[in-house]
Amino acid sequence: MHFKIDTDLCVGHGRCYTLASQWFDCDDVGYAEVKDVAIGDDERAHAEDVAAACPEGAISLLQG
Ligand code: SF4
To answer: Which atom of ligand 1 is nearest to the CA of 31?
Structure first.
């Protein structure tokens, strides 16, 4: 599993990197970036919650 951010939708609320700094970082102006960190199978539920917490629907959780 990995995250993908639609940069056309991200407006930089910062919820993702506040909720899950282990998986997300921000650039110099607050837009989200995905860290190159694996998501364990036991972390799936939390990863889904974090993706769902984006008000813009900019975060997808993809297999592989
Ligand atoms: S929560 Fe969504 S809109 Fe906000 S910084 Fe993260 S990806 Fe961007």
So the answer is: 5
Question: Which residue, by CA, sits nearest to atom 3 of ligand 1?
Answer: 10
The rounded average pLDDT for each run of 10 residues, N- to C-terminus, in the chain (64 residues) is 97 96 96 95 96 97 90
Q: How far is the CA of 52 from the centre of ligand 1 (A)?
A: 10
60 torsion bin: left (phi>0), alpha (psi -120 to 50), beta (else) = beta
- Does residue 14 belong to any structural domain of this protein? yes
Element (H, E) at 16: helix 15-19
- CATH number of 17's domain: 3.30.70.20
Taking the centre of ligand 1 as the mean of its atom positions, its distance from the CA of residue 42, in whole angstroms, is 23
